[in-house]
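Ligand-bound model needed. zinc ion.
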Amino acid sequence: MIDSADLPWLIPTREKLLGSAHRHHGLLVSGPPAIGKYLLGLDLATLMLCKQSREGGPCGSCQSCHLVSNSAHPDLHLLMPEVLAEDCHPALLGHAQRYLDPGQPGQRRKRSNVISVDSARLLSDSLLETSCLGGRKIALVLAADTLNRNAANAMLKVLEEPAGETLFILVTSFPYRMPATIQSRCIRIDCPAPILDDALAWLRGRHEADNEDLSTLLVSGLGPITIDELLSNRGMAAISTLIAYCMGKNQKTPDSLTLARMCGEVGIDRALRILQNLTLQAVRECVREGVTPAARGLFRDRGFSIRAFQRLGSARESVGSAVDEQLALEDICAWVCEEHARVSNFTNGGSK
Ligand SMILES: [Zn+2]
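Prediction:
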């Protein structure tokens, strides 16, 4: 398991958290996706439950630490949306099981991308009971922005008046999506984005990979933890193909069906995030260089890149709730390719 203490970009936040966790009963940990915030949350929970915690971390050998490492600590309550269970760290999944809906045997259904009110009520009820080991109770809520309004209300009461020694650790990449009532009861701790060199050095310490490839992935908006998982599971090929296609490395005019197929292979949400970050990169490059970036590639026009950034953002919001995700994906890919063609024709025509 990755230890959050080994992630150099999290060290200042980790120290701040370890120092303040004793003084508050609600912490809201935020920061960019896939930088290790969930693991940091679990480490903090482990520390707060440890019976012999030392300066800088849990002891790793007491009853509490053993129970946490076996995903069996009765006073560690972990809530997350079902969709996160698909690719979260096994250590986190083990703790989350008690609040995840097992579904009917043989039933296939779409995993929910919100934390349901039923799970939040179950958590609140458990937190009102006395702690099993006589110490603290920890509620660790991952992707806390996915608590829907009712779920947030169900949790609010116990967050306002926690029974016994209860600590809430809410972790999210999108704190502004959370109800003000929840935010106002927590101390917010922001994890800064990793510095590129730190993330590169960490990844290179774990994988044999080309520096340039890793840099491209990092500036495409994939967090180091995601890249690490992809490299470990050899899931990188589809992403590299998509990025190369968008950057015009195959010299072909982008067409929407190919783009949609490549996005589908990467996973719709992840693919849209990559595309959106490529637009952002293009805009930054324009500002920095003062000229239109690389003459090839999908996003080479500043105005188009800004419009595409906004459209892709809206698409990311709506795809999750779309009845037909594939149709929504094809729609945004068609828009991107048509606009790209229009802008290219205009630019070419204008230079004649
Ligand atoms: Zn311990």
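The two ends are 58 Å apart (CA to CA).
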